[in-house]
Design a protein that fits this description.
Elements: E1 2-8, H1 21-31, E2 35-43, H2 53-61, E3 64-73, E4 76-84, E5 88-95, E6 109-117, E7 120-128, H3 133-144, E8 158-163, H4 171-179, E9 181-182, E10 206-210, E11 214-221, H5 225-230, E12 236-242
Parallel strand pairs: 1-2, 7-8
Antiparallel strand pairs: 1-12, 2-4, 3-4, 5-6, 6-7, 8-10, 9-10, 11-12
Helix pairs in contact: 1-2, 3-4
């Protein structure tokens, strides 16, 4: 069994207004994940002489770090990351489409890493999509296209996850759910659960989508006393195993088209 986690860490800034990357690392460590996808990752040093924040979190977890910046400001960087305790390789990190009339301050991006687990290659794509619906749909379309999830080398088993800012009724969500299966359909508590805001969770914006050879055992937000204060999003974790057999181009099962 493997565990994968997606978590918008809100620049390590908690609801108590404290910047505490160590606390975020403790939330992640409590889940004992094999692979972690992070959004709103703040990299760089809080003050002179301190360690890089993203590297410090990875080292505290004993995981390898792949980082894609989306903002660069005065020597600091901010973006998305994938951490893993298994051998991994960066395949692609690139910007997603923007329909803004001028240069975008935050360059929405995706990060694709392969992870070797149990003799199999797992494709993992992490993304953080726009708050604007038209731009978000363009980005979701790109993620489902031949440069990312439908790329000839992005074979099953594959996982697309992140903060998509896309509730289940949105066109962006429905597009991704037509290609892959929403892991929260296997929530052991029944209905899929919201991930945002930690003070009053009402929106399901963070998602884990999986290809057909991945057997999801459970998927749900991680709600603890610590995770409630560490960020404005709850981490979303899925427990899964990979079916044995020949990898193939992934195809969403019928349930994905009717995801809740």
């Amino acid at each position: 069994m493997l565990r994968i986690l997606t978590y918008n860490v809100h620049r390590w800034l908690g609801t108590d207004r404290k910047i505490a990357p160590e606390r975020t690392a403790d939330v992640i460590a409590s889940c004992e994940p094999d692979i972690v996808a992070l959004q709103e990752v703040r990299a760089g040093r809080l003050s002179k002489g301190q360690a890089d924040q993203a590297v410090m979190v990875a080292n505290r977890l004993g995981m390898d770090l792949h980082f894609q910046p989306t903002i660069r400001v005065l020597g600091e960087q901010y973006g998305i990351a994938i951490l893993t305790r298994h051998p991994s390789r960066l395949v692609r990190s690139d910007r997603l489409p923007s329909i803004s009339p001028g240069p975008a301050f935050e360059k929405r991006s995706a990060l694709w890493v392969t992870v070797e687990v149990g003799g199999q290659t797992l494709n993992v794509v992490n993304a953080h999509l726009s708050l604007r619906s038209r731009e978000r749909l363009a980005q979701a379309t790109a993620l489902c296209g031949e440069e990312w999830i439908s790329h000839r080398e992005c074979l099953d088993p594959a996982i697309l996850l992140g903060d998509f800012n896309a509730p289940p009724r949105s066109r962006s969500y429905r597009l991704m759910a037509s290609q892959l299966l929403d892991a929260q359909l296997w929530n052991p508590s029944g209905e899929p659960q919201p991930t945002f805001h930690t003070r009053a969770p009402i929106l399901r914006l963070d998602h884990i989508f999986v290809s057909r050879s991945i057997d999801v055992l459970s998927a749900a937000p991680v709600r603890t006393k610590l995770s409630k204060v560490a960020s404005d999003h709850f981490p979303l974790m899925a427990r899964f195993q990979i079916a044995r057999g020949e990898p193939d181009a992934h195809e969403a099962p019928p349930e994905a088209a009717t995801a809740k």
